[in-house]
Amino acid sequence: MSLEPFETVVTRYGPMVLRVCRAVVGPDAADDAWSETFLSALQAYPRLRPDSDVQGWLVTIAHRKAIDQIRAAARRPRPTDTLPERVTEAPAALWESDVWPVLQHLPPKQRACVAYHHLVGLPYAEVAAIVGGTADAARRAAADGIKAMRTAVAAQEVRA
Amino acid sequence: MSTRTSDLFASLPERDDAVLARLHQRLAARAAADGVLDVAYRTVDSPVGPLLLAATERGLVKVSFEREGHAHVLEQLADDVSPRVLNAPSRLDPVARELDEYFAGRRTRFDLPLDLQLAHGFRRAVIEHLTDIGYGHTASYATVAAAVGNPRAVRAVGSACAKNPLPLVLPCHRVVRSDGSPGQYGGGEAAKLLLIALEAG
């Protein structure tokens, strides 16, 4: 039993970590969160026990990086003007106009619990180990988050 | 209120390959700058098939033929050198360029920093001697054994050549049997004959 080449880890978990970063910190900050996560993971990788749960380990690192970013963003003055329209034809464009406007109004802890349980598939006990608190609290936070998302989506459909 | 949970994320792409490719490139560059890219690798095409090239910060550490199984070789590197292994072509650019020149017949010796950490003891003495056999020449296993000071170690020379971590660059293809037949080669006999013919002009 030994560690796989780190390239294999990036190939296998890179897409999942990007989805999680996008859901937790949003489209603009996601690339930086992904980069910080994998750079930090690469540094620590030789010390990882070979039988570790690599997915859980990466989500834990991504969570720390996301929290750092959310805190840093809160310290920065917010732009009050409307941002220039971003010209992008990437597949991400659709979800930026669709999912993120709904997610961004949730408290960060709800966003994290929704992402780690519903996007990654981690059980609530593991989600709680990452975000802190009990498994029940993580379940409630995710349920509240999903409920708020449904309400927001329904409101969007009424407006549409 | 009938939206399924999975539908809430339907527009969040499962994979975004263009973005992931860019992020991978950025990761490799930052890892190198931070000194944590222990093993960089890339593959190149060549007349003897696809080659895997891998380098540490010290120099070229491994060249391997397709028949060795590139995935297996990367796992060995993770075990023997460091698991911090990334596909990061730029560190291997000078190696790829010199190999291209060699296969085009425009280069007779390699001028590259080498990391010989995968060869030890007698095996290392043998492969370090290989560059003394000039371009376009061959030497027998027995001659090489004598040159490294152990004339009876003919079989050990054979196995040192077979396990040479840097074929082509350390030219074990120039070591042949005393009867002139090519003998073993990590890239296969056809590759060995092709290289000998290439150097014969």
From TrEMBL, chain A:
Residues 103-148 form the RNA polymerase sigma factor 70 region 4 type domain. Residues 10-76 form the RNA polymerase sigma-70 region domain. InterPro entries: RNA_pol_sigma-70-like, RNA_pol_sigma-70_dom, RNA_pol_sigma70_r2, RNA_pol_sigma70_r4_t2, RNA_pol_sigma_r2, RNA_pol_sigma_r3/r4-like, WH-like_DNA-bd_sf. Pfam families: Sigma70_r2 (PF04542), Sigma70_r4_2 (PF08281). Keywords: Sigma factor, Transcription, Transcription regulation. SUPFAM superfamilies: Sigma2 domain of RNA polymerase sigma factors, Sigma3 and sigma4 domains of RNA polymerase sigma factors. It comes from the Bacteria. Belongs to the sigma-70 factor family. ECF subfamily. This is RNA polymerase sigma factor.
UniProtKB/TrEMBL annotation, chain B:
It comes from the Bacteria. Keywords: DNA damage, DNA repair, Methyltransferase, Transferase. The keyword Coiled coil does not apply. It catalyses: a 6-O-methyl-2'-deoxyguanosine in DNA + L-cysteinyl-[protein] = S-methyl-L-cysteinyl-[protein] + a 2'-deoxyguanosine in DNA; a 4-O-methyl-thymidine in DNA + L-cysteinyl-[protein] = a thymidine in DNA + S-methyl-L-cysteinyl-[protein]. One of its GO terms (biological process) is methylation. The keyword Transferase applies. InterPro entries: MethylDNA_cys_MeTrfase_AS, MethylDNA_cys_MeTrfase_DNA-bd, MethylDNA_cys_MeTrfase_DNAb, MethylG_MeTrfase_N, MGMT_N_sf, WH-like_DNA-bd_sf. Signal peptide: none annotated. One of its GO terms (molecular function) is methylated-DNA-[protein]-cysteine S-methyltransferase activity. Residues 40-116 form the Methylguanine DNA methyltransferase ribonuclease-like domain. Residues 122-200 form the Methylated-DNA-[protein]-cysteine S-methyltransferase DNA binding domain. Its EC number is 2.1.1.63. This is Methylated-DNA--[protein]-cysteine S-methyltransferase.
